Amino acid sequence: MDKIYLNQVGYFSESEKRAVLNFKADDFEIENADGNCVFKGKVSHFGTDDISGEDTYVAKFSDFKTEGTYRIKAQDGVSAAFTISDKPYAKLMKDICKCFYYLRCADALDKEFAGEYYHKPCHMTKATVYGEDTEPVDVTGGWHDAGDYGRYSTAGAVAVAHILYGVRFFPELLKVKFNIPAVSAEKGILPDILAETKVELDFLMKMQRENGSVWHKVTTFCHAPFVMPEDDKEELFLFPVSSIATADIAAVMALAYSVYKDYDSAYALKLKESSLRAYKWLKENPDELLFHNAEGSNTGEYDEAEDISNRFWAAAALYEAFGEEKYLTDAIDKKKELDLFDKEAKKKGYQGDVFTCMGWAEVAGLGSLSLFLKNEKNEITEEMKKRFILEADRLVENAGKNGFNLCMEAKDFIWGSNMELLKYLMVLTVSNKMLNVKAEYKNAIQSGLDYLLGCNSMDTSYVTGNGERAFKNPHLRPTAVDDIEQPWPGLVSGGPNVGLQDEMAKKVPADSAPMKCYYDHTACYSLNEITIYWNSPLVFVMAGMLQR
């Protein structure tokens, strides 16, 4: 079938604009909402690439800048509708931020703000400390992590970090309003984005033991069936402390201190105290303490092979926030260990750089961001800048290898491939900011966003409620059973995944090109689950897009 793929949400007037065709055409035209032709252009042949498996043709229309709503036509192909505007992403930005509100746990939702997506209070009971004969602990609050109802320290810390680094680099994010309950602070009402991240920060502080260490997660012993949150009444367990969770909390609390001190000094001191207690525990416990699920438990494991990147992030974040030289010394020491880890990874074929990684597992890139914010001309910071630029250049080179100008390779289409893309877009966004505009970076960022919003060979926007052909069936318990036709808007799908690790996903032909290994079905947890840390990097990237 003749298809024209493009960003189904829209473009700034001045941005790069392209559509990708999977059929031969010489010309294309743009029609307005009345069906009138308003622009004509030529189509160029790119060729076949290994990520889409399609013989692609490219229609560029950057010179067309008139605001309005349009479609592209070429021969028998007709695209989804799109807009050109000075604020094409206003709704998208509100939706991806408010998504966290709908994921709130406990009694935090209000019918006035949640509307038809309201649910009753959930997971209000205290949690049993697994393997210990101690009193149950109140760890209510926070965000449900993903398609399940678990809450995880490392995942939560990284999601909050993406958002708060977005605030630090791109203060325009503080102006985004997305209709949630107001939160008062010492110096007035918190901006919406800080009110929302405070929900998760408050929960993460509850996950910290008196000695500074942090429980890895709180979940039921096994995943809940597909029921509403309030109907998940199984016993909650706090699973053992890990050094990775403790390091991540040390880091994110230091980062949060740097943000919230401008709004509420008392709350900022709580954040600082939490960070320092966690870091003290890390120093007193230098051996890694990793995490694996208890036998028979199947909730998210979030296991990691080492804790070096977590400790590096913690040291860098504390140095940026509190300025003591000892933290910089620790960061330099951990950098040396990570260099060895990175060298071994490259021997196995890994093409990236561990110091640019900003996912839930490898978090050294978040430590690099803290060093950039500190903005000192020391050796480690200058090296991290160079490594970000080298990675950004690698990504731009990759983008030139396919008709979609997408910075991914075939090997990047794994479980959560859209997060792989968004991590790359974070690298490009930060590198672009440091260089004060490099056209190749800006174009790769735009093309990556285009892909996420529909310019892909599934002709699908991977953000619910945004785009004419947005996906509608996330692997997410409440939206699957709430009897509401549409899921709430702003959810980011995991995206195409060559692994096809669930039964429903195996309906996708095994020989499909990586970009086509996708199926919009609730049962496809390996393709279509959502998570807080797939939404959060999009918040960061969009904050960079809006800070024009």
Characterization of the model:
By secondary structure, the chain is of the alpha+beta class. The longest helix has 23 residues, at 325-347. The model has no long low-confidence stretch (mean pLDDT 97). Helix content is 39%, strand content 12%. It has 2 domains: 1-88, Sandwich (Immunoglobulin-like); 90-454 and 528-546, Glycosyltransferase, CATH 1.50.10. Strands 1, 2, 3, 4, 5, 6, 7, 8 and 9 form a 9-stranded mixed β-sheet that branches. It contains 15 helices and 15 strands. The radius of gyration is 23 Å and the shape is globular.
Unreliable sequence segments: none
CATH class of the largest domain: Mainly Alpha
Question: Based on DSSP secondary structure assignment, what is the total number of beta strands?
Answer: 15
Instruction: Supply the CATH architecture of the largest domain.
Output: Alpha/alpha barrel
Assign the CATH topology of the largest domain: Glycosyltransferase
The sequence of SSEs as H and E is: EEEEEEEEEHHEEHEEHEEHHHHHHHHHHH
Brief sketch in words of this structure:
The chain is α+β, with helices and mostly antiparallel strands and 548 residues long. It is 39% helix and 12% strand.
Layout of secondary structure:
Layout: E1 4-5, E2 10-12, E3 18-21, E4 27-32, E5 37-48, E6 55-60, E7 68-74, E8 77-78, E9 82-85, H1 90-102, H2 111-114, E10 128-129, E11 151-152, H3 153-169, E12 184-185, E13 188-189, H4 192-206, E14 215-220, E15 236-241, H5 243-260, H6 265-284, H7 308-322, H8 325-347, H9 364-374, H10 379-399, H11 417-435, H12 439-452, H13 477-481, H14 525-528, H15 532-546
Parallel strand pairs: 2-9, 10-15
Antiparallel strand pairs: 1-3, 3-6, 4-5, 4-7, 5-6, 7-8, 7-9, 11-14, 12-13, 14-15
Helix pairs in contact: 1-15, 3-4, 3-5, 3-9, 3-15, 4-5, 5-6, 5-7, 6-7, 7-8, 7-9, 10-11, 11-12, 11-15
